[in-house]
Amino acid sequence: MSHLAWAGQAYPAFSVAPMLDVTDRHFRYFLRLLSRQTLLYSEMVTTGALLYGKQPERYLDFSAEEQPVALQLGGSDPKALAECAQRAEQWGYAEVNLNVGCPSDRVQNNKIGACLMAEPVLVAACFQAMQAATSLPVTIKCRIGIDDQDEYQHLEDFITQVAAAGCQIFIVHARKAWLKGLSPKENREVPPLNYQRVYQLKREHPDLVIALNGGLTDLDQCQTALEQVDSVMLGRAIWQHPWLLAQVDAQIFAGPESSLTQHQAIQAYLPYVEQRLLAGDRFNPMLRPLLGVFQGVRGAKQFRRYLSEQGHRAGAGPEVIEQALALVPSSLD
C-alpha cells in the first residue's frame, strides 16, 4: 500500500463520499461524533457558485470539529479552479478534490464531472493549476470510464496522463458513467460495478494512492477491498445507515471502539443544533442526519415520523429531537 503524506499523515483508509443535498455541514458534524478518523467530504461546489455566487461562504463554512474535511469542486477552467483551491486552503480544509465522476446532464452542459474523462489533458492542466495554488493535497475523483470507453486501457491512459501532471491520489468509482440515456439515479445501478479494474489499476501503479468507491455497503466488504487498494469510500450506505460509521474507527483504523450509544450520539448533537439555530440556520435540515440512525431498531419508524411531522413547524427546536428520542427504547434502560 502507498503511504503518501496527506495532511501530514498517511491517506485515510476510509471516507464518506461527497453527496449533493446530503453531506452538508450538519450531516458531517453528526458523522464526526461517530468517527474521529474518517475523511468527510463536502457536497460538490461549482467554481461559479464560489466565485460569482451571492453567498459563497455558505458553501465553504464548516465547524472545526468536522476535520478532517475535504472540499469537492466542480469545474473545468484551470484558473477558476486554482482560485477556488486557494479559498479551500484559506477556509481551513484538509484537501481539495476535483469532481471528474458526476454523470448528470446538468453538469455536463457546464463541462463538469465525468465528461472530463474524455479530456485527460484538460484534467491534468486543472490539477496542475490547483496544486500550484495551494499547499493542500489535490485529489481526483473519477469513474472507470465513460460511454464506449469500456476497456482497462482507457482508464489506464487517463490515470497515466493525470498522474504525469503530479496527481498522486485518485478516488475511483468502479462503475462506468453513461453520459446519455441514463439518469444519475439509474447510473448508480447500471452498468455493473467492476472492482477488478480498480484493483488492477493499483497493482500497476503501486506508487499512487487508489481509493475504491461504488456499491460498498458494509465494513466486511471494505476490509476485503482494503487488501487490494489504499482506501475505501462509502456514500449511500452511510446516508441510509449512518450508525455504520460508529464501527469504523475500531474495524478499519484499529483504534478504540466508539463508546456512544445512538441516544448518546444524538444527545451530543443537540448543543450543535442550538448553536446553529442561534446562527440563523433552519431547523429541518439539521434533522436529516438523524433519520437513519435507528435503522433496524424498535421504535425507529416512530422516531422518523415524529421528526418529519414536527420538524417543519414554526418555532421547532431541539425539544423535537428529545421528544422523538423518547419514542425509541434506550439500550441503557
UniProtKB/TrEMBL annotation:
UniProt GO MF annotations: tRNA-dihydrouridine20 synthase activity
EC number(s) reported in the record: 1.3.1.91
Necessary cofactors: FMN
Entry keyword annotation includes tRNA-binding: yes
Active site: C102
Keyword Nucleotidyltransferase among record annotations: no
Reaction equation(s) it catalyzes: 5,6-dihydrouridine(20a) in tRNA + NADP(+) = uridine(20a) in tRNA + NADPH + H(+); 5,6-dihydrouridine(20) in tRNA + NADP(+) = uridine(20) in tRNA + NADPH + H(+); 5,6-dihydrouridine(20a) in tRNA + NAD(+) = uridine(20a) in tRNA + NADH + H(+); 5,6-dihydrouridine(20) in tRNA + NAD(+) = uridine(20) in tRNA + NADH + H(+)
InterPro entries: Aldolase_TIM, DUS-like_FMN-bd, DusA, tRNA_hU_synthase_CS
Site (Interacts with tRNA) location in chain: N99, K185, R188, R304
Residues binding FMN, per UniProt: P18, M19, L20, Q72, K141, H173, N213, G214, G215, G235, R236
A Pfam family hit: Dus
Function statement: Catalyzes the synthesis of 5,6-dihydrouridine (D), a modified base found in the D-loop of most tRNAs, via the reduction of the C5-C6 double bond in target uridines. Specifically modifies U20 and U20a in tRNAs.
Name the record gives this protein: tRNA-dihydrouridine(20/20a) synthase
